[in-house]
Write a structure and sequence with these properties.
- Keywords: Membrane, Transmembrane, Transmembrane helix.
- InterPro entries: DUF7813.
- Pfam families: DUF7813.
- The protein has 16 helices and seven strands.
- It is of the alpha+beta class.
- The chain has two domains: about 300 residues, no CATH class; about 100 residues, no CATH class.
- The strands form two sheets. It has a five-stranded antiparallel β-sheet with strand order 4-1-5-6-7, with no helix packed on it. A two-stranded antiparallel ribbon has the order 2-3.
- α2 packs antiparallel against α6.
- It is elongated, with a radius of gyration of 34 Å.
Length: about 450
């Protein structure tokens, strides 16, 4: 045991913060930490811009709202049940010598299109069976003309068939006359262009979301890896250049942190969505529900809370409970990155388990450090700083720097607890072991 003295011995939160200040006070280290902070700031700012693009694309596209409105099932009523069995037969085409007539059928308002006859109006007579709710007076699929039109009106009958195409309802008569559903007169070319534009927008949103995920994972791995290399070399009193720090940090981080970061992000995102389903299950408006869940998908990356008009109270309650849930979820993962760096042979599950075990060995210090990190780097302080300095980007820069600061503090705590635990179990974890961990 004498050959392997403790790596560092920091018992209290004050000691850890003091050692962190000492590491940051070195000029070379401070420059490196500023670069790491700038990387985090660039990531956070890019995520905010992408989040704004995604939410704006959904909010400002009436075509998406139109599609969801049409696909949403109407409320079930007694009348709709009586009429859902529609008889597709060849009804009558009646031409009346009256000025104008429009007909409502199955929820659609039909207008006439002039036929070659002067002053003629097209009237549709569909099946009038009593079981569909019609009066017995029209049970013969006819109509008492003397009760609805003036005397002397001429009738001519021609059969036609109904052809339904997406948004249009086209009725072709034998002489080429056409009747179109009012308000839905888009041509095939217009619909094709709308579909292409919608698919392009969906592709752009998916690509932006994928970029946000990949960029978050890559930058977080790089920053954690570089911070580990810098702090470990500082503990060993080794001088290392900025280029070597980022080179070695990128390699070590990608080897040891990739699996952990993927697992952490997947669990956090899954819990966010599951809680969102539980909380917003009562919302029936599909378009509002889509906007809410798009914002929930962004929430693990962006600090901007979801905002959908008409559901402010539900979203406020969700954000309040989600913040507490997210803080609670962060504790099992607080020491995970540094456990993965000092124990590269552990699996993802073992990393989380070992991190929780080390967290419990000195839980008071770990709890205070993680709580301070959540408070200083959280949304509330960000709003306060933005109000004080009048610039949201400047507030984000300060929070990015403090995020790196608490990364180092939690790393030092992990080293201290790991050293203490290994000594108690007669397992060496000192200078030689730390040098071995820095080998690329």
């Amino acid at each position: 045991m004498a050959d392997h003295p403790p790596l560092i011995d920091l018992q209290t939160t004050a000691q850890i913060l003091h050692r962190t200040n000492v590491i940051f006070s070195t000029g070379h280290n401070l420059r490196t930490f500023l670069v790491l902070s700038f990387l985090l700031f660039s990531l956070r700012d890019s995520v905010e811009n992408i989040s704004q693009f995604i939410t704006t694309s959904i909010d400002n596209d009436p075509y998406i709202e139109s599609i969801l409105s049409r696909s949403q099932l109407p409320p079930i009523s007694t009348t709709s049940k009586r009429h859902r069995h529609r008889h597709h037969h060849r009804p009558n085409w009646v031409v009346l010598d009256i000025g104008f007539l429009s007909i409502e059928q199955d929820g659609r308002i039909f207008e006439y299109i002039a036929t070659p006859k002067e002053n003629a109006t097209s009237l549709i007579l569909d099946s009038f069976s009593p079981h569909m709710g019609y009066s017995k007076f029209v049970s013969d699929n006819g109509i008492r003309a003397s009760e609805v039109v003036r005397p002397g009106v001429r009738f001519s009958y021609r059969s036609f068939k109904i052809v339904e195409k997406e948004d249009n309802v086209i009725m072709n008569s034998t002489n080429g006359s056409t009747l179109i559903d009012a308000g839905k007169t888009k041509s095939k070319k217009d619909l094709h262009q709308e579909t292409k534009r919608l698919l392009f927008k969906i592709g752009a949103i998916c690509a932006s979301f994928c970029f946000m995920i990949i960029a978050s994972i890559v930058i977080d791995i790089w920053v954690h890896g570089a911070a580990f290399v810098l702090v470990a070399n500082d503990i060993l009193n080794n001088q290392i250049s900025l280029q070597e720090t980022f080179h070695d940090g990128a390699i070590l981080g990608s080897r040891r942190l990739f699996g952990f970061m993927i697992t952490k992000l997947a669990i956090r995102n899954a819990l966010t969505q599951l809680y969102g389903v539980y909380h917003f299950v009562g919302i029936k408006d599909q378009y509002s529900l889509l906007k809410i869940f798009v914002r929930l998908m962004i929430l693990p990356f962006s600090s901007a809370p979801p905002s959908v008009k008409g559901y402010e109270e539900e979203i406020y309650l969700y954000m309040l409970t989600w913040f507490m849930l997210d803080m609670f979820m962060s504790f099992p993962f607080a020491l995970g990155p540094w456990v993965a760096m000092v124990d590269p042979g552990l699996t993802r599950g073992e990393v989380i388990e070992e991190g929780n075990r080390l967290f419990s060995l000195r839980s008071d210090v770990a709890f205070i450090l993680r709580s301070l990190q959540g408070l200083v780097c959280g949304d509330l302080l960000g709003l306060i700083l933005a109000f004080i300095f009048g610039n949201k980007l400047f507030a984000l820069m300060i929070q990015s720097f403090m995020e790196v600061y608490f990364m180092v503090a939690l790393m030092l705590h992990t080293f201290s607890v790991k050293s203490m635990d290994d000594m108690a179990n007669e397992i060496p974890f000192g200078q030689q072991e730390l040098e071995a961990l820095l080998e690329v």
